[in-house]
Amino acid sequence: MPIGTHYSTSLNRQDRYAQIANGGANRERTPSMMTLNNNLTTNMTGLENLLTLLYTLMQQISGQTFNTPQQPEPQPAPQATPPLSDAQYDQQFRDNLLKNIGEIGDGWEFSDKLVELPNSALNQPETRQYRDTQGKRQQETVLERNNYWEVVQRGADRHLVMRETDNAGQAVKPSEALQDIFAHRENYQFDCATPMRLLNLKATLDTVGADDFDQHSGRLQLSSWYDQHDNSRFDGGFISSVRTAEAGTINVKDKTNNAGETALFDPGKGDKLTPGNVYYFDLPGDTSSERQGWNAVYLGTGNNGSHQFWSSSIGEVAVNFANNGWIASAGFDDYYLGAAVSAPNTDRLRSWDTTRG
Protein backbone atom coordinates (compact mmCIF):
# COMPACT_ATOMS: atom_id res chain seq x y z
CA MET A 1 0.00 0.00 0.00
CA PRO A 2 1.46 3.50 -0.91
CA ILE A 3 2.63 5.53 2.03
CA GLY A 4 0.32 8.46 1.19
CA THR A 5 -2.73 6.23 1.24
CA HIS A 6 -1.77 4.93 4.67
CA TYR A 7 -1.51 8.41 6.15
CA SER A 8 -4.71 9.56 4.40
CA THR A 9 -6.65 6.67 5.83
CA SER A 10 -5.27 7.27 9.30
CA LEU A 11 -6.05 10.96 9.33
CA ASN A 12 -9.58 10.50 7.97
CA ARG A 13 -10.26 7.95 10.66
CA GLN A 14 -9.09 10.39 13.35
CA ASP A 15 -11.21 13.17 11.86
CA ARG A 16 -14.24 10.91 11.79
CA TYR A 17 -13.74 9.96 15.44
CA ALA A 18 -13.45 13.65 16.38
CA GLN A 19 -16.69 14.51 14.64
CA ILE A 20 -18.53 11.72 16.40
CA ALA A 21 -17.13 12.81 19.75
CA ASN A 22 -18.22 16.43 19.24
CA GLY A 23 -21.60 15.70 17.67
CA GLY A 24 -20.51 17.19 14.38
CA ALA A 25 -19.44 20.51 15.92
CA ASN A 26 -16.09 20.53 14.15
CA ARG A 27 -17.28 19.83 10.62
CA GLU A 28 -15.87 23.14 9.44
CA ARG A 29 -12.33 21.81 10.12
CA THR A 30 -12.60 18.93 7.68
CA PRO A 31 -11.51 20.84 4.52
CA SER A 32 -8.38 22.04 6.32
CA MET A 33 -7.41 18.49 7.32
CA MET A 34 -8.03 17.17 3.80
CA THR A 35 -5.83 19.88 2.41
CA LEU A 36 -3.02 18.80 4.79
CA ASN A 37 -3.46 15.20 3.71
CA ASN A 38 -3.22 16.10 0.03
CA ASN A 39 -0.06 18.11 0.68
CA LEU A 40 1.53 15.14 2.42
CA THR A 41 0.60 12.87 -0.46
CA THR A 42 2.10 15.29 -2.96
CA ASN A 43 5.29 15.62 -0.91
CA MET A 44 5.69 11.86 -0.59
CA THR A 45 5.25 11.43 -4.33
CA GLY A 46 7.92 14.04 -4.93
CA LEU A 47 10.26 12.28 -2.51
CA GLU A 48 9.77 8.99 -4.33
CA ASN A 49 10.58 10.69 -7.63
CA LEU A 50 13.73 12.19 -6.12
CA LEU A 51 14.89 8.84 -4.83
CA THR A 52 14.33 7.29 -8.27
CA LEU A 53 16.44 10.03 -9.85
CA LEU A 54 19.27 9.52 -7.33
CA TYR A 55 19.18 5.78 -7.96
CA THR A 56 19.52 6.37 -11.73
CA LEU A 57 22.45 8.75 -11.21
CA MET A 58 24.25 6.23 -9.03
CA GLN A 59 23.97 3.61 -11.77
CA GLN A 60 25.37 6.00 -14.36
CA ILE A 61 28.30 7.06 -12.15
CA SER A 62 29.32 3.54 -11.17
CA GLY A 63 28.71 2.01 -14.58
CA GLN A 64 26.87 -0.83 -12.90
CA THR A 65 23.33 -2.00 -13.02
CA PHE A 66 21.78 -2.84 -9.69
CA ASN A 67 19.36 -5.66 -10.14
CA THR A 68 17.06 -7.22 -7.67
CA PRO A 69 18.90 -10.08 -5.93
CA GLN A 70 18.01 -13.41 -7.45
CA GLN A 71 17.33 -16.55 -5.49
CA PRO A 72 20.11 -19.19 -5.94
CA GLU A 73 19.36 -22.05 -8.26
CA PRO A 74 18.32 -25.17 -6.33
CA GLN A 75 21.15 -27.70 -6.20
CA PRO A 76 20.47 -31.33 -7.02
CA ALA A 77 20.66 -33.78 -4.13
CA PRO A 78 24.08 -35.51 -3.85
CA GLN A 79 24.17 -38.83 -5.62
CA ALA A 80 25.56 -42.01 -4.05
CA THR A 81 28.95 -43.04 -5.41
CA PRO A 82 28.29 -45.82 -7.92
CA PRO A 83 29.71 -49.24 -7.08
CA LEU A 84 32.88 -50.39 -8.78
CA SER A 85 33.13 -53.08 -11.41
CA ASP A 86 34.84 -56.38 -10.65
CA ALA A 87 37.92 -55.21 -12.54
CA GLN A 88 38.05 -51.97 -10.52
CA TYR A 89 37.68 -53.78 -7.18
CA ASP A 90 40.37 -56.24 -8.25
CA GLN A 91 42.81 -53.50 -9.21
CA GLN A 92 42.18 -51.33 -6.15
CA PHE A 93 42.71 -54.30 -3.86
CA ARG A 94 45.99 -55.22 -5.59
CA ASP A 95 47.21 -51.62 -5.53
CA ASN A 96 46.43 -51.32 -1.81
CA LEU A 97 48.05 -54.66 -0.98
CA LEU A 98 51.26 -53.76 -2.84
CA LYS A 99 51.28 -50.29 -1.28
CA ASN A 100 51.06 -51.80 2.20
CA ILE A 101 53.92 -54.19 1.46
CA GLY A 102 56.02 -51.22 0.39
CA GLU A 103 55.34 -49.57 3.76
CA ILE A 104 56.17 -52.49 6.09
CA GLY A 105 59.61 -53.53 4.86
CA ASP A 106 60.38 -57.05 6.07
CA GLY A 107 57.04 -57.32 7.83
CA TRP A 108 56.90 -59.16 11.14
CA GLU A 109 59.43 -61.29 12.97
CA PHE A 110 58.90 -65.01 12.42
CA SER A 111 57.35 -67.22 15.11
CA ASP A 112 56.87 -70.98 14.94
CA LYS A 113 53.86 -70.53 17.28
CA LEU A 114 51.69 -69.10 14.45
CA VAL A 115 50.79 -65.98 16.47
CA GLU A 116 52.61 -64.36 19.36
CA LEU A 117 52.55 -61.16 21.41
CA PRO A 118 56.13 -60.85 22.70
CA ASN A 119 56.54 -59.54 26.25
CA SER A 120 52.76 -59.69 26.79
CA ALA A 121 52.30 -63.04 28.54
CA LEU A 122 49.83 -63.09 31.42
CA ASN A 123 51.24 -63.87 34.84
CA GLN A 124 48.40 -66.33 35.26
CA PRO A 125 46.64 -67.73 32.14
CA GLU A 126 42.87 -67.23 32.13
CA THR A 127 40.39 -69.95 31.22
CA ARG A 128 36.99 -69.00 29.85
CA GLN A 129 34.15 -70.12 27.58
CA TYR A 130 33.59 -69.22 23.94
CA ARG A 131 31.24 -70.33 21.16
CA ASP A 132 32.68 -72.15 18.16
CA THR A 133 31.50 -71.82 14.56
CA GLN A 134 28.59 -74.18 15.26
CA GLY A 135 27.50 -72.13 18.26
CA LYS A 136 28.65 -74.71 20.77
CA ARG A 137 30.31 -73.65 24.01
CA GLN A 138 34.00 -74.53 24.17
CA GLN A 139 36.87 -73.72 26.52
CA GLU A 140 39.83 -71.51 25.65
CA THR A 141 42.86 -70.27 27.58
CA VAL A 142 44.09 -66.69 27.29
CA LEU A 143 47.92 -66.69 27.24
CA GLU A 144 48.94 -63.20 26.13
CA ARG A 145 47.24 -59.80 25.91
CA ASN A 146 47.84 -56.24 24.73
CA ASN A 147 45.48 -53.29 24.32
CA TYR A 148 43.75 -54.69 21.22
CA TRP A 149 44.44 -58.43 21.02
CA GLU A 150 44.68 -61.66 22.99
CA VAL A 151 46.48 -64.89 22.15
CA VAL A 152 44.20 -67.79 23.07
CA GLN A 153 44.78 -71.53 23.01
CA ARG A 154 41.89 -73.54 21.58
CA GLY A 155 42.80 -77.19 21.64
CA ALA A 156 46.02 -77.55 19.65
CA ASP A 157 45.60 -74.20 17.86
CA ARG A 158 46.66 -70.70 18.81
CA HIS A 159 44.57 -67.74 17.67
CA LEU A 160 45.06 -64.01 17.86
CA VAL A 161 41.59 -62.80 18.86
CA MET A 162 40.50 -59.17 18.90
CA ARG A 163 39.43 -57.89 22.30
CA GLU A 164 35.90 -56.55 22.74
CA THR A 165 37.11 -53.65 24.93
CA ASP A 166 40.55 -52.14 25.42
CA ASN A 167 42.40 -51.45 28.70
CA ALA A 168 40.35 -48.26 29.20
CA GLY A 169 37.06 -50.10 28.76
CA GLN A 170 36.37 -48.59 25.32
CA ALA A 171 34.94 -50.74 22.53
CA VAL A 172 37.62 -51.95 20.12
CA LYS A 173 37.03 -51.25 16.43
CA PRO A 174 38.36 -53.85 13.97
CA SER A 175 39.95 -51.17 11.80
CA GLU A 176 41.89 -49.74 14.76
CA ALA A 177 42.98 -53.15 16.01
CA LEU A 178 44.25 -54.05 12.54
CA GLN A 179 46.03 -50.72 12.14
CA ASP A 180 47.90 -51.37 15.39
CA ILE A 181 49.39 -54.60 13.99
CA PHE A 182 50.77 -52.69 11.01
CA ALA A 183 51.85 -49.59 12.93
CA HIS A 184 53.56 -51.47 15.78
CA ARG A 185 54.97 -54.55 14.09
CA GLU A 186 57.56 -55.00 16.84
CA ASN A 187 54.73 -56.03 19.17
CA TYR A 188 53.59 -58.95 17.01
CA GLN A 189 55.17 -62.14 15.62
CA PHE A 190 53.70 -64.56 13.09
CA ASP A 191 54.40 -67.57 10.92
CA CYS A 192 54.65 -66.98 7.15
CA ALA A 193 50.93 -67.59 6.47
CA THR A 194 49.17 -65.26 8.95
CA PRO A 195 50.72 -62.14 7.33
CA MET A 196 48.94 -63.08 4.08
CA ARG A 197 45.65 -62.94 5.96
CA LEU A 198 46.70 -59.62 7.50
CA LEU A 199 47.55 -58.17 4.09
CA ASN A 200 44.17 -59.31 2.79
CA LEU A 201 42.34 -57.59 5.66
CA LYS A 202 44.36 -54.38 5.33
CA ALA A 203 43.82 -54.18 1.56
CA THR A 204 40.11 -54.78 2.16
CA LEU A 205 40.03 -52.00 4.78
CA ASP A 206 41.77 -49.59 2.41
CA THR A 207 39.41 -50.49 -0.45
CA VAL A 208 36.02 -50.28 1.29
CA GLY A 209 36.81 -47.78 4.08
CA ALA A 210 36.81 -48.05 7.87
CA ASP A 211 33.04 -47.72 8.41
CA ASP A 212 32.11 -50.58 6.10
CA PHE A 213 35.05 -52.66 7.29
CA ASP A 214 34.03 -52.29 10.94
CA GLN A 215 30.42 -53.09 10.11
CA HIS A 216 31.17 -56.35 8.30
CA SER A 217 34.40 -57.78 9.72
CA GLY A 218 33.16 -58.54 13.23
CA ARG A 219 35.48 -59.70 15.99
CA LEU A 220 38.64 -60.61 14.06
CA GLN A 221 40.46 -63.90 14.63
CA LEU A 222 43.88 -64.64 13.12
CA SER A 223 45.67 -67.98 12.79
CA SER A 224 47.57 -68.91 9.64
CA TRP A 225 45.14 -68.99 6.64
CA TYR A 226 42.06 -69.13 8.87
CA ASP A 227 39.19 -67.02 7.49
CA GLN A 228 36.16 -66.60 9.74
CA HIS A 229 34.04 -64.92 7.05
CA ASP A 230 33.14 -67.81 4.73
CA ASN A 231 32.65 -71.54 4.66
CA SER A 232 36.07 -72.35 3.18
CA ARG A 233 37.67 -71.25 6.48
CA PHE A 234 41.27 -71.53 5.26
CA ASP A 235 41.61 -69.28 2.22
CA GLY A 236 42.84 -66.20 4.08
CA GLY A 237 40.02 -64.12 2.59
CA PHE A 238 41.24 -64.71 -0.97
CA ILE A 239 39.90 -66.81 -3.82
CA SER A 240 42.37 -69.68 -3.73
CA SER A 241 43.11 -72.60 -6.00
CA VAL A 242 45.69 -75.38 -5.79
CA ARG A 243 46.75 -78.41 -7.77
CA THR A 244 48.55 -81.25 -6.04
CA ALA A 245 51.05 -83.75 -7.39
CA GLU A 246 51.57 -87.47 -7.12
CA ALA A 247 54.54 -88.58 -5.04
CA GLY A 248 57.95 -88.47 -6.71
CA THR A 249 56.96 -86.35 -9.71
CA ILE A 250 59.01 -83.29 -8.70
CA ASN A 251 62.75 -83.42 -8.05
CA VAL A 252 64.81 -80.58 -6.62
CA LYS A 253 68.46 -81.37 -5.92
CA ASP A 254 67.67 -85.06 -5.51
CA LYS A 255 64.76 -84.39 -3.16
CA THR A 256 61.34 -85.51 -4.37
CA ASN A 257 57.89 -84.46 -3.34
CA ASN A 258 55.45 -86.38 -1.19
CA ALA A 259 51.92 -87.17 -2.31
CA GLY A 260 49.62 -84.20 -1.73
CA GLU A 261 52.28 -81.50 -2.03
CA THR A 262 51.61 -78.81 -4.59
CA ALA A 263 52.15 -79.55 -8.26
CA LEU A 264 54.82 -77.62 -10.15
CA PHE A 265 53.75 -74.21 -11.47
CA ASP A 266 52.91 -74.69 -15.15
CA PRO A 267 51.83 -71.88 -17.55
CA GLY A 268 50.71 -74.59 -19.94
CA LYS A 269 47.96 -75.43 -17.43
CA GLY A 270 46.83 -71.85 -17.01
CA ASP A 271 49.21 -70.79 -14.23
CA LYS A 272 50.47 -67.21 -14.48
CA LEU A 273 52.24 -64.69 -12.31
CA THR A 274 50.18 -61.59 -11.49
CA PRO A 275 51.34 -58.79 -9.15
CA GLY A 276 49.25 -58.81 -5.97
CA ASN A 277 48.58 -62.56 -6.03
CA VAL A 278 49.92 -64.85 -3.31
CA TYR A 279 51.96 -67.92 -4.30
CA TYR A 280 53.64 -70.80 -2.50
CA PHE A 281 57.23 -72.04 -2.64
CA ASP A 282 57.28 -75.71 -1.69
CA LEU A 283 60.19 -77.69 -0.19
CA PRO A 284 59.83 -81.19 -1.67
CA GLY A 285 59.62 -84.04 0.82
CA ASP A 286 58.86 -81.78 3.80
CA THR A 287 55.30 -81.51 5.05
CA SER A 288 55.83 -80.90 8.74
CA SER A 289 58.75 -78.58 9.57
CA GLU A 290 58.60 -74.80 9.77
CA ARG A 291 60.68 -74.73 6.55
CA GLN A 292 58.23 -76.79 4.50
CA GLY A 293 57.21 -73.80 2.39
CA TRP A 294 57.00 -70.03 2.04
CA ASN A 295 53.95 -67.97 1.22
CA ALA A 296 54.97 -65.05 -0.98
CA VAL A 297 53.28 -62.13 -2.75
CA TYR A 298 54.34 -61.57 -6.35
CA LEU A 299 55.52 -58.00 -6.96
CA GLY A 300 56.56 -58.17 -10.64
CA THR A 301 59.77 -58.52 -12.62
CA GLY A 302 62.99 -56.77 -11.68
CA ASN A 303 65.33 -54.80 -13.96
CA ASN A 304 67.54 -57.85 -14.39
CA GLY A 305 64.65 -60.08 -15.43
CA SER A 306 64.31 -61.77 -12.06
CA HIS A 307 60.92 -62.26 -10.46
CA GLN A 308 60.32 -60.21 -7.31
CA PHE A 309 58.44 -61.76 -4.41
CA TRP A 310 57.77 -60.63 -0.83
CA SER A 311 57.51 -62.85 2.24
CA SER A 312 57.13 -61.79 5.86
CA SER A 313 60.30 -61.75 8.02
CA ILE A 314 62.35 -61.97 4.79
CA GLY A 315 61.13 -59.01 2.82
CA GLU A 316 61.65 -58.71 -0.93
CA VAL A 317 63.32 -61.65 -2.65
CA ALA A 318 64.63 -61.76 -6.22
CA VAL A 319 63.99 -65.23 -7.63
CA ASN A 320 65.53 -66.76 -10.72
CA PHE A 321 64.12 -70.00 -12.08
CA ALA A 322 66.33 -72.67 -13.61
CA ASN A 323 65.71 -73.15 -17.34
CA ASN A 324 62.17 -71.78 -17.00
CA GLY A 325 61.33 -74.88 -14.99
CA TRP A 326 59.98 -72.91 -12.02
CA ILE A 327 62.53 -74.39 -9.67
CA ALA A 328 64.30 -71.59 -7.84
CA SER A 329 68.00 -71.29 -8.68
CA ALA A 330 68.40 -68.09 -6.66
CA GLY A 331 66.16 -66.86 -3.88
CA PHE A 332 64.18 -69.58 -2.07
CA ASP A 333 66.94 -72.07 -2.92
CA ASP A 334 65.90 -75.74 -2.76
CA TYR A 335 62.25 -74.77 -3.32
CA TYR A 336 59.99 -74.95 -6.35
CA LEU A 337 57.10 -72.65 -7.22
CA GLY A 338 53.92 -74.58 -6.55
CA ALA A 339 50.63 -74.47 -8.45
CA ALA A 340 48.84 -72.63 -5.68
CA VAL A 341 47.52 -69.09 -6.06
CA SER A 342 45.38 -66.73 -3.99
CA ALA A 343 43.68 -63.80 -5.75
CA PRO A 344 41.36 -60.94 -4.64
CA ASN A 345 37.83 -61.86 -3.60
CA THR A 346 35.84 -59.22 -5.51
CA ASP A 347 32.47 -60.62 -4.38
CA ARG A 348 33.39 -59.96 -0.75
CA LEU A 349 34.70 -56.49 -1.54
CA ARG A 350 31.43 -55.58 -3.25
CA SER A 351 29.25 -57.03 -0.48
CA TRP A 352 31.22 -55.15 2.20
CA ASP A 353 31.34 -51.87 0.28
CA THR A 354 27.81 -50.84 1.22
CA THR A 355 28.54 -47.10 1.54
CA ARG A 356 29.70 -46.80 -2.05
CA GLY A 357 26.66 -48.65 -3.42
Largest sheet: spatial strand order: 9-17-12-13-14-15-16
Helix content: 25-40%
SSE sequence, one letter per element: HHHEEEEEEHEHHEEEEEEEEEEH
Q: In this structure, how is the largest beta sheet organized?
A: 7 strands, antiparallel
Return the structural class. Answer: alpha+beta
**Cα gyration radius (Å):** 40 Å
Distance between the termini: 56 Å
On the 0 to 100 scale, the average pLDDT is 85
Write down how many β-strands occur, each being a DSSP E stretch of 2 or more residues: 17
Uncertain segments are 1-42
Our estimate of the beta-strand percent is 15-25%
Count the DSSP helices.
7
Label the overall shape. globular
Description:
The chain has 357 residues and is α+β, with helices and mostly antiparallel strands. 31% of the residues lie in helices and 24% in strands. It has helices spanning 3-21, 30-62, 86-104, 174-183, 194-208, 210-217, 346-352; strands spanning 109-110, 115-116, 121-131, 137-145, 149-154, 157-162, 189-190, 221-222, 239-242, 251-252, 255-256, 278-282, 293-301, 307-311, 315-321, 328-330, 336-343. A 7-stranded antiparallel beta sheet has the order 9-17-12-13-14-15-16, with no helix packed on it. The chain has a 5-stranded antiparallel beta sheet with strand order 3-4-5-6-8. Strands 1-7-2 form a 3-stranded mixed beta sheet, with no helix packed on it. The longest helix has 33 residues, at 30-62.
